[in-house]
Amino acid sequence: MLYQRSSQLFAEAEQVIPGGVNSPVRAFKAVGGTPIFIKSAKGAYLFDEDGNRYIDYINSWGPMILGHAYEPVVESVIERTKLGTSFGTPTALETEIAKLAIAMVPNIEKIRFVNSGTEACMSAIRLARGFTKKDKIIKFAGCYHGHSDSFLIQAGSGASTFGTPNSPGVTAGTAKDTLLARYNDLENVAQLIAANPNEIAAIIIEPVAGNMGCVPPQKGFLEGLRALCTEHSILLIFDEVMTGFRLAKGGVQELYNIKADIVTFGKVIGGGLPVGAFAARAEIMNHLAPLGPVYQAGTLSGNPLAMAAGLAMLKAINEDAALFQRLEEKTAYLESGIQKILSESAVDFTTNRVGSMISVHFDATPVVDFQTAAKGDNASFKKFFHGLLQEGIYIAPSAYETWFITDALTYEDLDATLAAIKKVAQTL
After folding, report:
1. This model's pTM is above 0.90
2. Is 256 a catalytic residue?
């Protein structure tokens, strides 16, 4: 494939945008090469500036669960645009999507809309601290909750050691209130709680991790977190920015029947426009201004275009009883095909999957946490990525990102993908 126009555009972008991109993973730094510039998308396909077509397994990092340029979403945004793009006042639309989201998701009574998943997680942490009157939080290595300062923390050494910032600009003072735990290691969490008695406001987790590849929770892990939180008066926050409205109508809470205290949303809830949200029972949410003392605001929060897109998306999901079964079957078909091909090619690998989230790790070790995920960040993945790109298959340009499956994919698309994987596997 030719990438002449994309290469030219990237060179131009580098002159005026840091790194040529507005979000780092887009720069292909982890895999090398020049990023492709997308001109348009429809259904399961991306079309770049050079006229190449790709079967898309990123799907805008998750929102396009029903495909690109999904007609009901497009039409709803067009119609709302004609009425004005932003008012800075309440609209009936905000209440309508709030009611629908609350009806679809278990254990939430009130919801507030923001502009991104980062905002949602940042606000959830502030609310948890305000509600519990405690300062420290526990997060997990390999889980990403946006680029708010509290979350950009790397490991210390031992249960009672504070984390240290892993980005300049994050202060040591911020880092001291963030404790880092190992995913799927309940004993490690218990040690952290014991070492910081009555100081922990919340545990925040991707209940199905997607930022170290797809990493499912092991049996009993989420249940154990719920029990620890209840025992120690800690709020359990499920970051469902990826998993919400994707793994089930009600997200992971529904899928695994685990109650979180606060849930954050993004991606699917916006239908492709910038939207985030956080939700909880009324007792917690009523601590937010203007009812309570915890301040949170946003000029464009709940803007009519984003709400129109999100409402159209949630209505479509809510009304399609067979959607999640179709996604399960398509993704299982893809996983089975990948496993067969890579096994026959004598490639060391492991796959992880939950519903329509799937990852391929090029190491035989089971991937259960960030440490084991890192073993698959290797030359094989880079060759795999670029090989598939040449075959018109677009997967995440990082070993640490999950693939997102869209219902717009046909079995012909899946077979074409598997044929490409078979060809590329011979080079690994």
Report:
1. yes
2. no
